[in-house]
Sequence to fold (170 residues):
Amino acid sequence: MVEPILARFGLGDPEWLDPATAGAIVLIAILVAFVLHKVVFPLIIRFTKWTPTDLDSRLVRSARWPVSLGILVLGVYLALTLPLDLTDTQQARTDTVAKVLAVVLGIFLVVGLLSKTVDWYLENLAGKTQGIIDVKLFPLIRRVAVVFIYGLGALLVMDLLGINISPLIA
Fold:
């Protein structure tokens, strides 16, 4: 589709076109991630200051890095798969690496959201309750939940890498 247009300008040799397209996709992903990280997220955080609690601000802050890095991973994945003619094994490896990185970023996102939510509860609501159980039990619940999420994520990553996880589950 682009080749006839390039041929009109004497640029009919498309050997450089695929790597240039891949580079352009990566640059666009870097630009989008940078704008999202430096402009959009601060605007969202500023809007969340109008709410009665600061829970939403904490959640947005904890999602900032995983979402930005997820956009970079998506950009690199698209740059490798769309313009370049990968063999089946190269495509399978690229898919596997992208899936593993997506799972890892998802794990970091969920752990960050959980930790910020428990921290917010302990700072704002636990002092208003009559029981001391909240103050002592919630940090333990958070630690157990974080270990569980990391363990579940490790099992997912191992499954994506083709490692049999059935003996680990049993």
About this structure: The chain has six helices and no strands. The longest helix spans residues 88-124.
